[in-house]
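Subject: sequence -> structure tokens, single chain

Hey, anyone have a minute? Need the predicted structure for the following. Not urgent.
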Amino acid sequence: NAVCVVWQALTYALLYGAPVEPLPPRPQPAPTGLRVHPPRLVPLDEVRAIVEASKQLPPLDGLRPVTTATLVGLLWTTGMRIGEALALDVGDLEPTQHLLLIRRGKFGKTRVLPLRASTTTALGGYLHHPARPMDTAPASPLFVSRRRRRLSYPAAAENLHAAVAAARIAPHRAPRF
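Reply:
Had a minute. Here:
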């Protein structure tokens, strides 16, 4: 794709008299396998199946099932990006007002998201879950791993893939963050 764009720019420059060496023949467009696939809207029944499957991830009494179910639910109800969710701190949640502060959004923008009461309740339940190894200090990460660190993207993606497989969703229909 980049070669095609540069070729078009050089053709334009050549047309208007710029000193450009002779160009090779026009390149072929990128193969379809290299093109970005359009996003697929995930139906509510699939989201429910993924959340329920998340709750059954091993170890059942550990943090992984609760973290995955809460993260998937938050992403689906708010439409926020995975990087924004993983960057959240406990202090970014305002439970009494049902608001969530996104500090490190796309292009570094800050915004406030309104939350449903059920989403606020789910986040509060996650924060006070007995398997959660971190305290609820405002500067603490919201989503954590069992190693007491901020949940990483690879770990979150692995959990999502495990939940999608457990929900028996076909691989070609598997949702991405």
